[in-house]
């Protein structure tokens, strides 16, 4: 009896599977797939994709810069500098990103504090200035704290003799950092930093909670307009996969070609 | 001077932490005076509001308690599923390995918010089609499912790393003793893997604890949602969100310090 029932379920599933696929219209699982919405509303998807790209690219660049500075300050010999950097890191690492976004968005008028952001935003073609920059700032704070911690771990994992050897060669500490320590540390931390970049791309979806029109927001928009959440969510999922896979591919390329070259250059330079 | 200072603080940790707390309070007060002089904490954080944020409504689970419950249930479930996936990922049989790889890579590439939406909107439809009946999920359980699906991909990677760190000879030794593959995993391999994994799992718990705030999007009244509800009512965002950030910070910071400490202990045990 049980066997028969399970076989029936398997059969219905098989029938349903047959009709699953890129049928433009058809009754599947009691839900009619209609992929043509994606074509009708493709401008929404494109806008969302561009917005996610803007958030991610600016966020990645600035988070990497801020994170590197904070990571270097964290290992500074000066106690107060190091403690300042560790405050920054622990503070932004331990508060959920969504809380940071809400805090910045609802409490501050960013355009009032940084008036120049208005022109930047206009150049970037953004409608919701406050939302965009709140999300961007929160993303930068959150990710840079992680990057700083990773960089600190990478630098501290190098043997101490490296720094001493470069000091013996008469380098200043900035020179030895630039030519000796960082090229090696970058090689070590490349993997974890890539995953932080990917996390930033993924986390940029949180900007939808304050009304920034990026990919996830557009899914909801299409769902609200046409009641076709499934199709939109599939498309957006594929777009996110594309973004994250491209990022990791790019980082693999950087890891394989650029980082080795910097090492060899630094050796020649010495 | 600064080196002697750090040495002094290393010897007297409690003085260091007390000074830290004082310093943080001073920074916060200065920040508030400069950016938000009109803040009124007494009005925003009344006993009722704080009670609502920490415990939710009278007769149901909610607030910070719900956040902890959510994180705890999800981490346990994803620990089980993640272990299975991690072993599958480690296995050399392709039929087992490839689905695990696809699952892990897919869920690590998706934003958590998308996973929550998928579970919340898609599972009722798919489940209803498979079982041929009305199939509904509460927001809370779909949140737990989403967190489990998402987190188990990360835990699977941790398990795989743990498995990689174990000597292959142990499998062979187990086989020589006449154990089958299940026995080898349960009695020999997994206990060692888990011991190495504990710190990583704890730090994963911290990140899950922070991520549970995303259940906000499907209207479950967890800590963050409760705070936004109050904020929508009285509109005192500075006071409320700084309170929320403070509580989240204390919980996450304590847990992550605990994870660091455990990591050091485990490392010490492994090297002796």
Main attributes?
heterodimer; A: 270 residues; mainly alpha; MetI-like fold; two-stranded antiparallel ribbon; 2 strands; 3% strand; elongated; disordered C terminus; B: 272 residues; 82% helix; 0% strand; flat
Short recap of the structure:
The complex is a heterodimer of chains A (270) and B (272). Chain A is mainly alpha-helical.
Write up what this structure looks like.
The complex is a heterodimer of chains A (270) and B (272). Chain A contains twelve helices and two strands; from the N terminus they run H-E-E-H-H-H-H-H-H-H-H-H-H-H. With 270 residues, chain A is mainly α. Chain A has one domain (40-269): MetI-like (MetI-like fold, Orthogonal Bundle), CATH 1.10.3720. In chain A, helix 9 crosses helix 10. Chain A is elongated. By secondary structure, chain B is mainly α. Chain B has one domain (47-271): MetI-like fold (Orthogonal Bundle). Chain B has helices spanning 2-11, 13-35, 41-44, 47-55, 63-90, 94-109, 112-131, 139-164, 169-176, 181-211, 223-234, 237-271. The longest helix of chain B has 35 residues, at 237-271. The radius of gyration of chain B is 23 Å and the shape is flat. Chains A and B meet through helix 1, helix 4, helix 5, helix 10 and helix 11 of A and helix 1, helix 6, helix 7, helix 10 and helix 11 of B.
């Amino acid at each position: 009896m049980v066997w028969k029932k399970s076989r029936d379920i398997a059969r219905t599933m098989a029938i349903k599977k047959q009709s699953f696929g890129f049928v433009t219209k058809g009754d599947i699982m009691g839900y009619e797939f209609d992929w043509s919405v994606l074509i009708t509303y493709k401008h929404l998807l494109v806008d969302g994709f561009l917005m996610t790209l803007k958030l991610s690219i600016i966020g990645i660049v600035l988070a990497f810069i801020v994170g590197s500075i904070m990571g270097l300050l964290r290992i500074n010999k000066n106690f107060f500098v190091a403690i300042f950097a560790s405050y920054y890191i622990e503070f932004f690492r331990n508060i959920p990103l969504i809380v940071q976004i809400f805090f910045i968005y609802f409490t501050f008028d960013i355009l009032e504090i940084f008036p120049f952001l208005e022109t930047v935003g206009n150049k970037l073609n953004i409608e919701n200035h406050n939302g965009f920059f709140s999300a961007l700032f929160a993303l930068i704070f959150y990710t840079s704290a992680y990057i700083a911690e990773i960089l600190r771990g990478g630098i501290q994992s190098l043997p101490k003799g490296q720094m001493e050897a470069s000091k013996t060669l008469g380098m200043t500490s900035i020179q030895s950092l630039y030519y000796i320590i960082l090229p090696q540390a970058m090689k070590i931390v490349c993997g974890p930093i890539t995953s932080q970049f990917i996390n930033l791309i993924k986390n940029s979806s949180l900007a939808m909670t304050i009304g920034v029109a990026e990919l996830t927001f557009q899914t909801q928009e299409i769902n609200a307009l046409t009641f076709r959440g499934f199709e939109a969510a599939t498309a957006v999922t594929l777009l996110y996969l594309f973004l994250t896979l491209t990022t990791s591919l790019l980082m693999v390329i950087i890891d394989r070609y650029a980082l080795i070259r910097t090492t060899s250059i630094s050796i020649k330079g010495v | 001077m600064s080196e002697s200072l750090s040495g002094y603080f290393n010897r007297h940790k409690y003085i260091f932490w007390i000074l830290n707390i004082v310093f943080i309070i001073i920074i916060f007060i200065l920040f508030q005076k400069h950016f938000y002089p009109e803040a009124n904490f007494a009005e925003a954080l009344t006993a009722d509001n704080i009670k609502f944020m920490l415990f939710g409504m009278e007769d149901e689970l909610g607030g910070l308690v719900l956040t902890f419950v959510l994180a705890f249930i999800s981490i346990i479930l994803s620990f089980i599923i993640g272990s299975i996936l991690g072993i599958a990922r480690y296995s050399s049989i392709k039929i087992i390995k490839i689905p695990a790889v696809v699952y892990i890579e897919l869920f690590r590439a998706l934003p958590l918010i998308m996973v929550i939406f998928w579970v919340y909107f898609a599972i009722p439809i798919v489940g209803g089609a498979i079982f041929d009946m009305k199939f509904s999920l509460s927001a809370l359980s779909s949140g737990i499912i989403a967190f489990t699906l998402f987190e188990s991909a990360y835990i699977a990677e941790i398990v795989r790393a743990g498995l990689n760190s174990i000597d292959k000879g142990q499998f062979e030794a187990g086989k020589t003793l006449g154990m089958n593959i299940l026995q080898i995993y349960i009695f020999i391999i997994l206990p060692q893997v888990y011991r190495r994994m504990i710190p990583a799992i704890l730090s994963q718990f911290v990140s899950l604890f922070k991520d549970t705030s995303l259940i906000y999007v499907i209207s479950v009244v967890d800590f963050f949602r409760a705070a936004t509800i109050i904020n929508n009512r009285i509109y005192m965002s500075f006071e409320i969100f700084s309170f929320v950030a403070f509580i989240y910070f204390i919980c996450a910071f304590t847990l992550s310090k605990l994870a660091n400490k455990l990591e050091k202990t485990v490392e010490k045990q492994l090297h002796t």
